[in-house]
Write a structure and sequence with these properties.
The structure is a homodimer of 183-residue chains. Chain A is an alpha+beta fold and 183 residues long. Chain A folds into two domains: 8-81, Arc Repressor Mutant, subunit A; 89-183, Ferric-uptake regulator, C-terminal dimerisarion domain (Dna Ligase, domain 1), CATH 3.30.1490. Chain A is 37% helix and 17% strand. Chains A and B meet through strand 1, helix 1, helix 2, helix 3 and helix 4 of A and strand 1, helix 1, helix 2, helix 3 and helix 4 of B. The structure holds a DNA duplex (30 and 30 nucleotides).
Chain lengths: 183, 183
Amino acid sequence: MELQLVNEGRRAGYAARRLAEFAERCRRGGLAVTPQRLAIIRALLASAEHPRADAIYETVRREHPHISLATVHRTLETLCEIGEARKVTMLHDSARYDGNVVPHHHVICVRCRRIRDVEIPELNDLLSARREIGDFKVLGSSLEIHALCPDCAGKGRARRAKHGRGSSPRTGCKDSVQDTRGG
Amino acid sequence: MELQLVNEGRRAGYAARRLAEFAERCRRGGLAVTPQRLAIIRALLASAEHPRADAIYETVRREHPHISLATVHRTLETLCEIGEARKVTMLHDSARYDGNVVPHHHVICVRCRRIRDVEIPELNDLLSARREIGDFKVLGSSLEIHALCPDCAGKGRARRAKHGRGSSPRTGCKDSVQDTRGG
DNA sequence: AATCGGATGATAATTACTACCAAGTAATCG
DNA sequence: CGATTACTTGGTAGTAATTATCATCCGATT
Protein backbone atom coordinates (compact mmCIF):
# COMPACT_ATOMS: atom_id res chain seq x y z
CA MET A 1 0.00 0.00 0.00
CA GLU A 2 1.24 3.45 -0.90
CA LEU A 3 1.59 5.44 2.27
CA GLN A 4 3.77 8.43 2.89
CA LEU A 5 4.22 11.44 5.10
CA VAL A 6 3.25 14.69 3.43
CA ASN A 7 6.38 16.72 2.90
CA GLU A 8 6.90 20.28 4.02
CA GLY A 9 7.40 21.86 0.61
CA ARG A 10 4.11 20.64 -0.73
CA ARG A 11 2.30 21.66 2.42
CA ALA A 12 3.64 25.20 2.19
CA GLY A 13 2.55 25.61 -1.42
CA TYR A 14 -0.88 24.32 -0.57
CA ALA A 15 -1.16 26.73 2.35
CA ALA A 16 -0.28 29.72 0.17
CA ARG A 17 -2.95 28.83 -2.35
CA ARG A 18 -5.56 28.30 0.35
CA LEU A 19 -4.75 31.60 1.99
CA ALA A 20 -5.12 33.45 -1.29
CA GLU A 21 -8.61 32.09 -1.76
CA PHE A 22 -9.68 32.56 1.82
CA ALA A 23 -11.48 35.92 1.60
CA GLU A 24 -13.39 34.74 -1.42
CA ARG A 25 -14.42 31.54 0.32
CA CYS A 26 -15.56 33.39 3.41
CA ARG A 27 -17.86 35.58 1.38
CA ARG A 28 -19.16 32.56 -0.43
CA GLY A 29 -19.87 31.02 2.97
CA GLY A 30 -21.67 34.16 4.12
CA LEU A 31 -18.96 35.14 6.57
CA ALA A 32 -17.38 38.52 7.12
CA VAL A 33 -13.66 38.71 6.43
CA THR A 34 -12.21 40.02 9.67
CA PRO A 35 -8.57 40.54 10.62
CA GLN A 36 -9.01 37.95 13.37
CA ARG A 37 -10.22 35.30 10.96
CA LEU A 38 -7.42 36.05 8.57
CA ALA A 39 -4.85 35.81 11.34
CA ILE A 40 -6.30 32.53 12.56
CA ILE A 41 -6.46 30.80 9.20
CA ARG A 42 -2.95 32.08 8.46
CA ALA A 43 -1.65 30.62 11.71
CA LEU A 44 -3.43 27.34 11.08
CA LEU A 45 -2.17 27.02 7.52
CA ALA A 46 1.36 27.92 8.59
CA SER A 47 1.45 25.13 11.15
CA ALA A 48 2.16 21.48 10.51
CA GLU A 49 1.49 20.71 14.18
CA HIS A 50 -2.27 20.16 14.07
CA PRO A 51 -2.51 22.74 16.80
CA ARG A 52 -5.01 23.18 19.58
CA ALA A 53 -6.94 26.39 20.02
CA ASP A 54 -4.57 27.67 22.67
CA ALA A 55 -1.53 27.24 20.42
CA ILE A 56 -3.22 29.21 17.66
CA TYR A 57 -4.13 31.80 20.29
CA GLU A 58 -0.52 32.20 21.35
CA THR A 59 0.61 32.64 17.77
CA VAL A 60 -2.09 35.07 16.76
CA ARG A 61 -1.66 37.11 19.91
CA ARG A 62 1.74 38.27 18.73
CA GLU A 63 0.05 40.32 16.00
CA HIS A 64 -3.33 40.85 17.66
CA PRO A 65 -2.58 41.28 21.35
CA HIS A 66 -6.23 41.99 22.10
CA ILE A 67 -7.69 38.87 20.51
CA SER A 68 -9.77 36.73 22.81
CA LEU A 69 -9.28 33.01 23.32
CA ALA A 70 -13.03 32.62 22.89
CA THR A 71 -12.74 34.13 19.44
CA VAL A 72 -10.09 31.60 18.52
CA HIS A 73 -12.28 28.71 19.66
CA ARG A 74 -15.31 30.11 17.89
CA THR A 75 -13.43 30.88 14.71
CA LEU A 76 -11.81 27.47 14.43
CA GLU A 77 -15.23 25.92 14.85
CA THR A 78 -16.64 28.22 12.19
CA LEU A 79 -13.81 27.40 9.81
CA CYS A 80 -14.63 23.72 10.18
CA GLU A 81 -18.25 24.43 9.41
CA ILE A 82 -17.48 26.16 6.11
CA GLY A 83 -14.93 23.50 5.25
CA GLU A 84 -11.83 25.69 5.61
CA ALA A 85 -10.45 23.51 8.39
CA ARG A 86 -11.10 20.12 9.86
CA LYS A 87 -10.65 18.48 13.20
CA VAL A 88 -8.20 15.63 13.44
CA THR A 89 -10.86 13.61 15.21
CA MET A 90 -14.53 14.32 15.65
CA LEU A 91 -14.52 12.49 18.98
CA HIS A 92 -12.49 14.96 20.97
CA ASP A 93 -15.33 15.92 23.31
CA SER A 94 -14.87 13.14 25.79
CA ALA A 95 -13.39 9.69 26.13
CA ARG A 96 -15.41 6.86 24.61
CA TYR A 97 -14.53 3.37 25.77
CA ASP A 98 -14.69 0.06 23.99
CA GLY A 99 -14.67 -3.34 25.67
CA ASN A 100 -13.61 -4.98 22.44
CA VAL A 101 -9.82 -5.11 22.44
CA VAL A 102 -9.52 -7.17 19.27
CA PRO A 103 -8.21 -4.79 16.59
CA HIS A 104 -11.10 -3.29 14.70
CA HIS A 105 -12.42 0.02 13.41
CA HIS A 106 -15.43 2.30 13.85
CA VAL A 107 -18.28 3.87 11.95
CA ILE A 108 -19.29 7.11 13.62
CA CYS A 109 -22.47 9.01 12.94
CA VAL A 110 -21.47 12.63 12.33
CA ARG A 111 -24.74 13.85 13.80
CA CYS A 112 -25.44 11.80 16.91
CA ARG A 113 -21.97 10.37 17.46
CA ARG A 114 -23.32 6.86 17.58
CA ILE A 115 -20.45 4.42 17.10
CA ARG A 116 -20.44 0.87 15.79
CA ASP A 117 -17.64 -1.59 15.40
CA VAL A 118 -16.45 -2.49 11.93
CA GLU A 119 -14.05 -5.17 10.92
CA ILE A 120 -11.69 -4.59 8.04
CA PRO A 121 -9.26 -7.49 8.23
CA GLU A 122 -7.49 -6.38 5.07
CA LEU A 123 -6.72 -2.99 6.55
CA ASN A 124 -5.24 -4.59 9.64
CA ASP A 125 -3.14 -6.85 7.46
CA LEU A 126 -1.92 -4.01 5.29
CA LEU A 127 -0.98 -1.88 8.25
CA SER A 128 0.59 -4.57 10.35
CA ALA A 129 2.89 -5.27 7.42
CA ARG A 130 4.10 -1.72 7.84
CA ARG A 131 6.68 -1.32 10.64
CA GLU A 132 7.32 2.36 10.11
CA ILE A 133 6.14 5.41 8.22
CA GLY A 134 8.80 7.99 7.64
CA ASP A 135 10.67 7.93 10.93
CA PHE A 136 7.62 6.97 13.03
CA LYS A 137 7.45 3.42 14.42
CA VAL A 138 3.98 2.05 13.79
CA LEU A 139 2.17 0.38 16.69
CA GLY A 140 -1.38 0.08 15.48
CA SER A 141 -4.20 2.01 13.92
CA SER A 142 -7.83 2.91 14.09
CA LEU A 143 -10.03 3.98 11.22
CA GLU A 144 -12.86 6.43 11.86
CA ILE A 145 -15.47 6.10 9.15
CA HIS A 146 -17.68 9.19 9.14
CA ALA A 147 -21.26 8.40 8.28
CA LEU A 148 -24.92 9.05 8.93
CA CYS A 149 -26.69 6.45 11.03
CA PRO A 150 -30.11 5.24 9.86
CA ASP A 151 -31.90 7.43 12.42
CA CYS A 152 -30.06 10.59 11.46
CA ALA A 153 -30.02 9.99 7.72
CA GLY A 154 -33.79 10.43 7.63
CA LYS A 155 -33.77 13.76 9.41
CA GLY A 156 -32.74 15.85 6.45
CA ARG A 157 -29.96 18.37 6.52
CA ALA A 158 -28.50 19.25 9.90
CA ARG A 159 -30.11 22.11 11.79
CA ARG A 160 -26.91 23.38 13.36
CA ALA A 161 -27.25 22.26 16.93
CA LYS A 162 -25.43 24.29 19.54
CA HIS A 163 -22.16 22.86 20.76
CA GLY A 164 -22.91 22.16 24.40
CA ARG A 165 -19.70 20.36 25.30
CA GLY A 166 -20.83 16.77 25.32
CA SER A 167 -24.46 17.76 25.20
CA SER A 168 -25.54 15.02 22.89
CA PRO A 169 -23.33 11.94 22.68
CA ARG A 170 -25.15 10.74 25.77
CA THR A 171 -28.42 10.24 23.97
CA GLY A 172 -29.40 13.06 21.69
CA CYS A 173 -28.15 14.16 18.31
CA LYS A 174 -25.56 16.74 17.43
CA ASP A 175 -24.62 18.14 14.09
CA SER A 176 -21.47 19.63 12.60
CA VAL A 177 -21.49 17.35 9.60
CA GLN A 178 -17.94 17.22 8.37
CA ASP A 179 -17.64 15.60 5.02
CA THR A 180 -14.19 14.18 4.65
CA ARG A 181 -14.92 12.18 1.57
CA GLY A 182 -12.11 11.89 -0.91
CA GLY A 183 -12.01 13.87 -4.12
CA MET B 1 -12.41 -4.57 0.46
CA GLU B 2 -14.08 -6.72 3.06
CA LEU B 3 -15.79 -4.47 5.53
CA GLN B 4 -18.68 -5.25 7.78
CA LEU B 5 -20.42 -4.23 10.99
CA VAL B 6 -19.77 -6.56 13.88
CA ASN B 7 -23.01 -8.33 14.66
CA GLU B 8 -24.65 -8.49 18.05
CA GLY B 9 -24.50 -12.25 18.54
CA ARG B 10 -20.78 -12.43 18.07
CA ARG B 11 -20.21 -9.47 20.29
CA ALA B 12 -22.21 -11.05 23.13
CA GLY B 13 -20.26 -14.29 22.98
CA TYR B 14 -17.00 -12.42 23.01
CA ALA B 15 -18.14 -10.38 26.01
CA ALA B 16 -19.05 -13.51 27.99
CA ARG B 17 -15.62 -15.00 27.38
CA ARG B 18 -13.84 -11.80 28.32
CA LEU B 19 -15.83 -11.46 31.51
CA ALA B 20 -15.00 -15.00 32.56
CA GLU B 21 -11.29 -14.29 32.24
CA PHE B 22 -11.42 -10.89 33.88
CA ALA B 23 -10.47 -11.76 37.46
CA GLU B 24 -7.56 -13.81 36.25
CA ARG B 25 -6.36 -11.01 34.03
CA CYS B 26 -6.60 -8.48 36.82
CA ARG B 27 -4.39 -10.58 39.05
CA ARG B 28 -1.97 -11.06 36.21
CA GLY B 29 -1.92 -7.29 35.81
CA GLY B 30 -1.30 -6.82 39.54
CA LEU B 31 -4.74 -5.38 40.21
CA ALA B 32 -7.15 -6.26 43.00
CA VAL B 33 -10.47 -7.67 41.85
CA THR B 34 -13.01 -5.34 43.40
CA PRO B 35 -16.80 -5.38 42.99
CA GLN B 36 -16.56 -1.95 41.39
CA ARG B 37 -14.13 -3.12 38.75
CA LEU B 38 -16.25 -6.15 38.01
CA ALA B 39 -19.36 -4.03 37.66
CA ILE B 40 -17.58 -1.58 35.37
CA ILE B 41 -16.09 -4.16 33.03
CA ARG B 42 -19.44 -5.95 32.96
CA ALA B 43 -21.24 -2.75 32.00
CA LEU B 44 -18.63 -1.98 29.37
CA LEU B 45 -18.72 -5.43 27.83
CA ALA B 46 -22.52 -5.44 27.86
CA SER B 47 -22.68 -2.22 25.87
CA ALA B 48 -22.32 -1.84 22.12
CA GLU B 49 -22.54 1.94 22.50
CA HIS B 50 -18.89 2.77 23.11
CA PRO B 51 -20.02 4.60 26.20
CA ARG B 52 -18.58 7.56 28.03
CA ALA B 53 -17.63 7.36 31.68
CA ASP B 54 -20.89 8.95 32.77
CA ALA B 55 -22.99 6.39 30.92
CA ILE B 56 -21.09 3.54 32.59
CA TYR B 57 -21.58 5.37 35.87
CA GLU B 58 -25.35 5.51 35.40
CA THR B 59 -25.50 1.81 34.61
CA VAL B 60 -23.25 0.67 37.43
CA ARG B 61 -25.04 2.90 39.93
CA ARG B 62 -28.14 0.77 39.70
CA GLU B 63 -26.29 -2.07 41.44
CA HIS B 64 -23.73 0.01 43.34
CA PRO B 65 -25.56 3.14 44.39
CA HIS B 66 -22.52 4.38 46.31
CA ILE B 67 -20.01 4.16 43.51
CA SER B 68 -18.21 7.37 42.71
CA LEU B 69 -17.93 8.89 39.27
CA ALA B 70 -14.23 9.38 39.97
CA THR B 71 -13.89 5.63 40.44
CA VAL B 72 -15.49 5.03 37.07
CA HIS B 73 -13.11 7.42 35.35
CA ARG B 74 -10.13 5.94 37.15
CA THR B 75 -11.15 2.37 36.52
CA LEU B 76 -11.80 2.83 32.83
CA GLU B 77 -8.37 4.39 32.54
CA THR B 78 -6.85 1.49 34.45
CA LEU B 79 -8.63 -1.04 32.27
CA CYS B 80 -7.10 0.61 29.21
CA GLU B 81 -3.69 0.40 30.81
CA ILE B 82 -3.87 -3.35 31.37
CA GLY B 83 -5.38 -3.87 27.93
CA GLU B 84 -8.89 -4.81 29.08
CA ALA B 85 -10.45 -1.84 27.32
CA ARG B 86 -9.46 0.70 24.74
CA LYS B 87 -10.43 4.24 23.87
CA VAL B 88 -12.12 4.82 20.57
CA THR B 89 -9.71 7.68 19.93
CA MET B 90 -6.60 8.66 21.79
CA LEU B 91 -7.16 12.32 20.89
CA HIS B 92 -10.15 12.99 23.09
CA ASP B 93 -8.34 15.47 25.34
CA SER B 94 -8.91 18.52 23.23
CA ALA B 95 -9.68 19.56 19.68
CA ARG B 96 -6.78 19.49 17.25
CA TYR B 97 -7.23 21.42 14.03
CA ASP B 98 -5.89 20.85 10.57
CA GLY B 99 -5.73 23.42 7.83
CA ASN B 100 -5.38 20.73 5.20
CA VAL B 101 -8.87 19.90 4.00
CA VAL B 102 -7.78 17.55 1.24
CA PRO B 103 -8.68 14.02 2.41
CA HIS B 104 -5.75 12.48 4.20
CA HIS B 105 -4.85 10.58 7.34
CA HIS B 106 -2.66 10.98 10.42
CA VAL B 107 0.23 9.36 12.24
CA ILE B 108 0.00 10.14 15.94
CA CYS B 109 2.77 9.62 18.46
CA VAL B 110 1.24 7.74 21.38
CA ARG B 111 3.60 9.43 23.79
CA CYS B 112 3.79 13.09 22.85
CA ARG B 113 0.70 13.28 20.66
CA ARG B 114 2.66 14.77 17.81
CA ILE B 115 0.64 14.43 14.61
CA ARG B 116 1.75 14.31 11.02
CA ASP B 117 -0.23 14.07 7.83
CA VAL B 118 -0.12 10.88 5.81
CA GLU B 119 -1.49 10.25 2.38
CA ILE B 120 -2.95 6.88 1.56
CA PRO B 121 -4.64 7.39 -1.79
CA GLU B 122 -5.60 3.73 -2.02
CA LEU B 123 -7.49 3.90 1.23
CA ASN B 124 -9.42 6.93 0.05
CA ASP B 125 -10.22 5.15 -3.18
CA LEU B 126 -11.38 2.02 -1.46
CA LEU B 127 -13.59 3.89 0.94
CA SER B 128 -15.04 6.33 -1.51
CA ALA B 129 -16.19 3.33 -3.53
CA ARG B 130 -18.21 2.35 -0.50
CA ARG B 131 -21.49 4.28 -0.20
CA GLU B 132 -22.75 2.53 2.89
CA ILE B 133 -21.76 0.09 5.60
CA GLY B 134 -24.66 -1.80 7.08
CA ASP B 135 -27.32 0.89 7.27
CA PHE B 136 -24.87 3.76 7.78
CA LYS B 137 -24.33 6.16 4.86
CA VAL B 138 -20.61 6.73 4.44
CA LEU B 139 -19.38 10.32 4.11
CA GLY B 140 -15.66 10.04 4.60
CA SER B 141 -13.01 8.64 6.84
CA SER B 142 -9.89 9.32 8.83
CA LEU B 143 -7.26 6.81 9.78
CA GLU B 144 -5.34 7.28 13.03
CA ILE B 145 -2.04 5.47 12.86
CA HIS B 146 -0.63 5.00 16.35
CA ALA B 147 3.11 5.24 16.43
CA LEU B 148 6.19 6.45 18.23
CA CYS B 149 7.79 9.56 16.83
CA PRO B 150 11.58 9.59 16.39
CA ASP B 151 12.06 11.68 19.55
CA CYS B 152 9.94 9.41 21.74
CA ALA B 153 11.13 6.12 20.29
CA GLY B 154 14.57 6.71 21.75
CA LYS B 155 13.33 7.36 25.27
CA GLY B 156 12.79 3.74 26.26
CA ARG B 157 9.68 2.43 27.92
CA ALA B 158 7.06 4.88 29.13
CA ARG B 159 7.39 6.17 32.69
CA ARG B 160 3.66 6.55 33.32
CA ALA B 161 3.23 10.28 33.20
CA LYS B 162 0.34 11.69 35.20
CA HIS B 163 -2.75 12.50 33.21
CA GLY B 164 -2.90 16.25 33.62
CA ARG B 165 -5.76 16.91 31.21
CA GLY B 166 -3.94 18.18 28.17
CA SER B 167 -0.74 18.62 30.08
CA SER B 168 1.53 17.57 27.30
CA PRO B 169 0.19 17.83 23.75
CA ARG B 170 1.29 21.46 23.83
CA THR B 171 4.95 20.66 23.88
CA GLY B 172 5.94 17.93 26.29
CA CYS B 173 5.47 14.20 26.19
CA LYS B 174 2.77 12.03 27.69
CA ASP B 175 2.52 8.29 27.94
CA SER B 176 -0.34 5.81 27.97
CA VAL B 177 1.03 3.77 25.12
CA GLN B 178 -1.91 1.92 23.69
CA ASP B 179 -0.84 -0.76 21.31
CA THR B 180 -3.67 -1.46 18.96
CA ARG B 181 -1.68 -3.55 16.56
CA GLY B 182 -3.53 -6.36 14.85
CA GLY B 183 -3.37 -10.00 15.79
C1' DA C 1 -21.54 58.15 5.31
C1' DA C 2 -25.57 55.68 7.48
C1' DT C 3 -27.28 51.43 8.63
C1' DC C 4 -27.46 46.81 10.30
C1' DG C 5 -26.36 42.18 11.31
C1' DG C 6 -22.81 39.48 12.33
C1' DA C 7 -18.24 39.40 15.06
C1' DT C 8 -15.50 40.32 18.96
C1' DG C 9 -13.80 40.72 23.86
C1' DA C 10 -14.47 40.00 28.56
C1' DT C 11 -15.97 37.07 31.66
C1' DA C 12 -19.08 33.76 33.84
C1' DA C 13 -20.58 29.18 33.47
C1' DT C 14 -20.36 24.36 32.20
C1' DT C 15 -18.35 20.00 31.47
C1' DA C 16 -14.99 16.36 31.71
C1' DC C 17 -11.67 14.84 34.23
C1' DT C 18 -7.87 14.57 37.84
C1' DA C 19 -5.78 15.36 42.49
C1' DC C 20 -6.03 14.61 47.08
C1' DC C 21 -6.84 12.33 51.28
C1' DA C 22 -9.20 9.79 54.86
C1' DA C 23 -11.43 5.48 55.31
C1' DG C 24 -12.38 0.82 53.51
C1' DT C 25 -11.16 -3.62 51.83
C1' DA C 26 -8.76 -7.32 48.87
C1' DA C 27 -4.75 -10.07 49.07
C1' DT C 28 -1.14 -12.11 51.69
C1' DC C 29 0.87 -14.25 55.47
C1' DG C 30 0.95 -16.48 59.70
C1' DC D 1 -9.39 -17.47 60.69
C1' DG D 2 -7.39 -12.99 62.05
C1' DA D 3 -3.71 -9.43 61.56
C1' DT D 4 -1.18 -6.67 58.32
C1' DT D 5 -0.54 -3.83 54.50
C1' DA D 6 -0.91 -1.87 50.20
C1' DC D 7 -4.12 -0.92 46.87
C1' DT D 8 -8.91 1.13 46.21
C1' DT D 9 -12.59 3.79 46.92
C1' DG D 10 -15.70 7.87 47.91
C1' DG D 11 -16.13 12.51 48.54
C1' DT D 12 -14.82 16.68 47.13
C1' DA D 13 -11.98 20.40 45.61
C1' DG D 14 -9.43 21.81 41.74
C1' DT D 15 -8.08 22.23 36.80
C1' DA D 16 -8.48 22.62 31.88
C1' DA D 17 -11.12 23.07 27.66
C1' DT D 18 -14.83 24.96 25.79
C1' DT D 19 -19.29 27.42 25.43
C1' DA D 20 -22.74 31.07 26.83
C1' DT D 21 -23.83 35.67 27.45
C1' DC D 22 -23.98 40.27 26.34
C1' DA D 23 -22.44 44.91 25.51
C1' DT D 24 -19.71 46.92 22.10
C1' DC D 25 -17.60 47.02 17.66
C1' DC D 26 -16.96 46.81 12.84
C1' DG D 27 -17.38 44.82 7.94
C1' DA D 28 -20.61 44.82 4.30
C1' DT D 29 -24.20 46.87 1.87
C1' DT D 30 -26.73 50.75 0.41
